[in-house]
């Protein structure tokens, strides 16, 4: 038994939800470039859950169901008010999503219909939790969403308390499409491991949020913004990055386990970052990011991943840095729940082996003799 570090190259499941083949990402066989250009996030959610793009009636039905479940139980709002105002936002989300199970009578109902309804509830409530906590920590009351509006619109509306610009809604929607699913990424894998014990869907997504939080996964988008803030201005980029590269430190937002020739999602976010910067008349963050890419790709051959240009994109949307990874979770909730439903449909407990490298043949001695 020989271990493969980080399970690199190990095929651990079959799935018909998304694929990465020769650097091309598809959801249910649709190229991510087409979905990013032409589909809304709600269409993508439907695609991931039901395996086909919705017609108009089906899409309206899904939107109505999401609208029906978007509000939080008052106990969850009360709980959010008890949290420290400076809490880690991914810890807040992980805790609140886990707590939702306590207010769902069907939390442990394992029928497909019950699990699908729970997926709808989780997808609907995740943006509400993030927006509500963001307002509560600023001493403001949470805002109810606008009926009939999209997830992207309502998230921005509930966050800021005013009608978002159409360009901001479009950019948010596209970002949600781009992050929705990604084959057997770390957080999706942990959600599948959790529910493969026949634990409930709330436990599965709670595991996933905890896994997404780390800076080697979803937490990288916030880490990129920390780096941009540390650099401060365009003229400081070269010195800062060169020193990091010389010290063999990691540059956040670069590299990927699967993509070695570039992440197909990054170009869309790069374009959004540029367009939003132009519209604001402030291309500093975009220009800094482009220069970082020139240096890192030029010297290390590493390409930017999905997280790199999301940092400047979300900043141009005036979103606080510590909500970047929670936004990733809003989007990936669709993929996690699709994978959890798929896991339940053809389940076998996930239980790999470890290569033992510890001592052997130890002689037990009583506690007095140690
Ligand atoms: N900056 C500098 N060097 C890097 C970076 C980076 N961002 N990423 C990889 N490398 C180097 C490694 O140090 C390693 O060098 P070595 O061979 O001299 O030891 C080499 O490139 C190969 O990298 P691995 O560590 O083997 O890559 P792995 O597949 O294990 O990790 C990961 C992939 C975690 C994404 C890594 O590239 C990384 O830490 N990137 C920065 C964090 C990040 O952006 N994460 C988001 C990923 S996308 C997502 O999850 C949404």
From TrEMBL:
Name this polypeptide is given: Citrate synthase
Sections of the chain in a coiled coil: none
Record-linked NCBIfam families: cit_synth_II (TIGR01800), PRK14034.1 (NF010637)
GO CC annotation: cytosol
Active site: 256, 307
Catalytic reactions on record: oxaloacetate + acetyl-CoA + H2O = citrate + CoA + H(+)
Source organism per UniProt: Paenibacillus aquistagni
Family note: Belongs to the citrate synthase family.
Keyword match Transferase: yes
Transferase is among the record's keywords: yes
InterPro entries membership: 2-MeCitrate/Citrate_synth_II (IPR011278), Citrate_synth-like_lrg_a-sub (IPR016142), Citrate_synth-like_sm_a-sub (IPR016143), Citrate_synthase (IPR002020), Citrate_synthase_AS (IPR019810), Citrate_synthase_bac-typ (IPR024176), Citrate_synthase_sf (IPR036969)
Classification via Gene3D superfamilies: Citrate Synthase, domain 1 (1.10.580.10), Cytochrome P450-Terp, domain 2 (1.10.230.10)
Pathway given in the UniProt record: Carbohydrate metabolism; tricarboxylic acid cycle; isocitrate from oxaloacetate: step 1/2
Any single biological process term in GO: carbohydrate metabolic process
Gene Ontology terms, MF aspect: citrate synthase activity
Keywords from the named record: Transferase, Tricarboxylic acid cycle
